[in-house]
Amino acid sequence: ETSVQTLEFQAETRQLLNLVIHSIYSNKDIFLRELISNASDALDKLRLESLTAAAPGADTSDLHIALEADTDARTLTVRDNGVGMSRDEVVELIGTIAKSGTASLLEKIKAAHDAEAAQSLIGQFGVGFYSAFMVADKVTLRTRRAGTDEGTLWESDGDGTYDISTVDGLPVGTSVTLHLKPADGEDGLADYLAEWKIRAIVKQYSDFIRWPIRMPVERGEENGVAVTEMQTLNSMKALWSRPRAEITEAEYHEFYQQISHDWTDPAETIHLRSEGTFAYDALLFIPSQAPFDLFSHQTKRGVQLYVKRVFIMDDCEALVPNYLRFVKGVVDAHDLSLNISREILQHDRHIRGVRKRLVKKVLGAIKDMQASDAERYATLWDQFGRVLKEGLVEDPDSTEALLEVISAASTHDAEKTITLREYVARMKDGQDAIYYLTGATRAVVENSPHMEAFTAKGYEVLILTDPVDEVWVDHVAEFDGHRFQSIAKGQVDLDHEDGDDKDDEQKAQREADFADLLPWLAATLSKQVKQARLSSRLTTSPACVVGDTGDITPMLEKMYRAMNQ
Ligand code: ADP
Ligand code: MG
């Protein structure tokens, strides 16, 4: 052992540690899931490296996770013979929280009204390795990176600093030893040394982990000596590869919670298998609530790629478009190279086919939900609608399917959103366009002078208040043969749509009345407006400013300005 260095945790890490230690989670059991999931990742990485020649000669003959409870020392150890970490990696990965959005998450947690809200926030974030400090007052990590000789010892009691030193003689892989706090029923601290407890947690959270999770178990006595045997605690069944008919809803939900680290049930489960020329299994979930960082730039996509049960990558952008980034799940392709890179995936014809099918399935599931369970659909739209609308700009191939599932506020009903189908079904005789108006809030839109004539004449107008609405309405040509028409742009000839001759006479009369005023207005305001004309869109306001048909709207102008464009 060389000299010990004491280092400080990065400030955000320290704050998060504090939150964790002061027990934001009421469910402390999840610490074991987190450590096992890290161990499993490390085994995946080593296996992949050995197969792709990054770590040739690595011993992958018995990759596994071992749990060891020492009742005398009151320690629980989670050991893996995976890829391990170098000293630099330990400092970088364990001493720092590299996740995006940590700072803003901490702000939100501080602002949360109650423990439950705070817990929900941190649950969405996932505290990973640090969850160990919920149950331990000291954590010792020993690790050796595959392909190197040097081992690293890391130790901390979670108070802001950690000790790190170099050690010899460690096996390849990582062990994490928790010096357990005293068990205390009231505090939610179970006896994590008890065999039944460890078994129960593994079964609940880590049953599908594809590596054996082993534990020595006492099996009675022989000649006065305790006999122990090694047992594998998890089933290791990759749920997606089993036939749908044999899987219960509870199993799907458990699996979802395991891969998403969410504790709620998913809103929708989609399980499909393709046995064509490019065989794959896909198991996708639509969560019931949005993660806190859905709109952060670095949000990852939730679909993982496996090749024949070997984990290849998280966040597989080739499999799902950005606007479906909230979908979680697994795609296991049977005939891909384990060496496949993200770049190659992007251009792979088969993968494009898979992506197309997945998008169709997800949008189809949402459409079915809309038809069969309005309440569940409304919740889903509330959580993910804004993201789905990005698809109208991003994915022209899915425009039709997306327009079928979107909903929007409208002047028809102040309480409920409506679908475009409903809008079209209510269109007035002779009405040809779908009218909409964008603005910052419903109140702003409703009180706009542009609205007057439309409301007076009984036309329904969509009220679009999300920033993304500004963009998609320009991208989408039409729905069901009807174009989208902003009531704030160009000439809207409502009189004409009525097909009323008397109105035409009145109009001619009015034009004569104002023949002198209009050129004067145009000349006086020449710097501000392109044109002054008589309008049929107002009933009580004397005047309003409208954009030209091709102009960008004031809100979009603001957006572009904010983006420095
Ligand atoms: P996450 O797993 O979400 O990345 P964690 O806090 O659980 O976050 O772990 C942080 C990082 O530390 C991991 O991404 C991994 O690189 C490293 N790590 C943790 N545990 C192990 C382990 N048992 N073996 C190798 N690396 C590990
Ligand atoms: Mg982790």
Major beta sheet, specifics?
9 strands, mixed
Number of strands: 20
The tally of helices reads 19
Work out the radius of gyration.
Answer: 30 Å
Structural class by secondary-structure content:
alpha+beta
The general outline is elongated
State the separation between the terminal residues, measured CA to CA. Answer: 57 Å
Range of strand content: 15-25%
Q: Which consecutive residue ranges, at least 5 long each, have pLDDT under 50?
A: none
Percent in helix: 25-40%
> Can you give the mean pLDDT?
86
Order of strands, main sheet, comes to 1-6-5-4-7-3-2-8-9
Protein name: Chaperone protein HtpG
Region (B): 343-558
Family: Belongs to the heat shock protein 90 family.
Domain Histidine kinase/HSP90-like ATPase: 27-184
Give a quick set of tags describing it.
20 strands; 9-stranded mixed sheet; binds magnesium ion; alpha+beta; 565 residues; 21% strand; 36% helix; 19 helices; binds adenosine-5'-diphosphate; 6-stranded mixed sheet
